[in-house]
Write a structure and sequence with these properties.
about 25% helix; single chain; Immunoglobulin-like; alpha+beta; seven-stranded antiparallel β-sheet; Rossmann fold
Length: about 425
């Protein structure tokens, strides 16, 4: 059978004059090891390196980039083409409100704060633009910027009127190596640690079980933690419901949300979601592609509700970056499916990009919805927390090992900010 290798490229990547754009092959080539092939990136501008294509534009323009994959016999296995759309950074002519929405990748506010710095301030590197009329809004706040971000949330979390996860008061010293480990309560329910705080833990229902959570008690280790000591908790309470929920009508109401913020209409909404769907997909026994089609309809539901509440809004759909490919998945999730199959998770992430792109191209959506391909703009090999671990149990020689599978370092979050920054600059030029 003829071997084929798919190349996932966005229809267009937005670039900004003076800003360095990098496209990492690990995030665009569908292969367990993309470096076993010959990867050829061709463009009239930029430079081609072994791991990525790079271009720092000095003027506006549009340039075609083609990425081809060859085997050792120089047989073409796959090819894709995209457009690099370069614009200049220009301040909008009026006040612009931007809402960033997400899960635990957004919860700490790091990428939103860096996006705000690049747009609104003049310090740091890359140097900020100093625009004074771009405002970031939301009910969450971190690092002086507002947004909406909640650990463990999915698309349905923002359209659901009931809470899924719980918070427990549990003084602890768990570390990132215990994140996403599984714990059993005294009723036999299995919970997954989603968010770590000194005095509190956020727990997701493992495989969406519906068992009642005890008000207090002991959690005993079930799987995947490094620190397996029992966790004593003194109270439990439901996680919050969608910030778009109208308590008076009992419905999801984006217009109500906007009015409650009291800052005027929201011009642009960036939504970074999709990383928390793997266990749900397994529980539903769907194929990756079928599940991504289901997610697309959940995306459509939220997009429709946002559009209904704000007719002039622009909505940007962002699939998560590919997970750690240097051990972080094993550090967090053990050796069971689906997480033991790293390539399958990478494939899932790329399929999400396709689903988002399909919706953004549909009639009725293409004028206000856009998909931003983050996977290629994120360096998954050097953007997750890591340690130096002995190469084997009998050696003092060490190697790089990631300690978290899906939550990047600050530097990784900055790359998310960079991808959104380039797109936002394009939008600001239109306002």
């Amino acid at each position: 059978m003829d071997e084929k290798v798919r190349v996932y490229l966005a229809k267009q990547y937005d670039l900004v004059v003076g800003d360095t754009f990098q496209l990492f092959y690990r995030g665009i080539v569908e292969a367990p090891n993309p470096y076993c092939y010959s990867i050829v990136a061709l463009c009239e501008k930029g430079k081609s390196f072994p791991r990525y294509f790079e271009y720092t534009p000095q003027e506006e323009g549009r340039h075609v980039l083609t990425v081809s994959i060859y085997n050792a016999e120089r047989k073409l296995l796959g090819r894709a083409e995209t457009v690099l759309n370069v614009v200049s950074a220009t301040a909008p002519k009026k006040q612009v409100n931007v809402l960033c929405v997400g899960d635990s990748l957004t919860q700490n506010g790091v990428w939103v704060a860096e996006l705000n710095r690049r747009i609104s301030q003049t310090d740091g590197e890359p140097k900020g633009n100093g625009f004074t009329n771009v405002n970031f809004v939301g009910t969450c706040s971190a690092k002086g910027v507002e947004f909406e971000g909640y650990g463990g949330w999915q698309w349905v979390s923002y359209t659901c009127t009931k809470a899924g996860a719980i918070w427990v008061q549990a003084p602890n010293d768990k570390t990132e190596q215990d994140q996403h480990s599984l714990w059993k309560d005294e009723n036999g329910n299995i919970w997954q640690i989603e968010t770590l705080q000194v005095d509190y833990l956020k727990l997701n229902r493992f495989k969406d079980h519906q068992g009642e959570a005890p008000k207090k008690g002991i959690l005993t280790h079930y799987k995947n933690a490094v620190d397996t000591r029992p966790i004593e908790f003194f109270s439990s309470s439901p996680d919050r419901v969608s910030p778009f929920y109208n308590e008076q009508s009992g419905e999801i109401d984006f217009n109500y949300y906007t009015q409650k913020l009291g800052k005027g209409d929201i011009d642009v909404v960036y939504i970074l979601l999709g990383a928390n769907g793997l266990m749900r997909q397994i529980a539903m026994n769907n194929t990756r592609r079928d599940y991504c089609k289901l997610v697309k309809e959940e995306v459509r539901e939220l997009v429709d509700k946002i559009k209904k509440g704000n007719k002039n809004v622009k909505i940007k759909l962002i699939a998560p970056p590919i997970p750690s490919c240097r051990g972080g998945i094993g550090s967090n999730y053990g050796a069971e499916l689906p997480f033991a199959d790293l390539y399958d998770i990478i494939h899932y992430t790329m399929e999400l990009n396709i689903a988002y792109e399909e919706l953004a191209c549909e009639d009725g959506y293409k004028d206000f919805v856009e998909s931003i391909h983050l996977t290629g703009q994120f360096d998954a090999e050097y953007s997750y927390p890591h340690i130096q671990k002995p190469v084997n149990a009998r050696s003092s020689i060490t190697e790089w090992l990631d300690t978290n599978g899906v939550h990047p370092t600050n530097e990784g979050s900055y790359q998310i900010a960079d991808a959104v920054y380039r797109n936002l600059i394009k939008e600001l030029n239109k306002i």
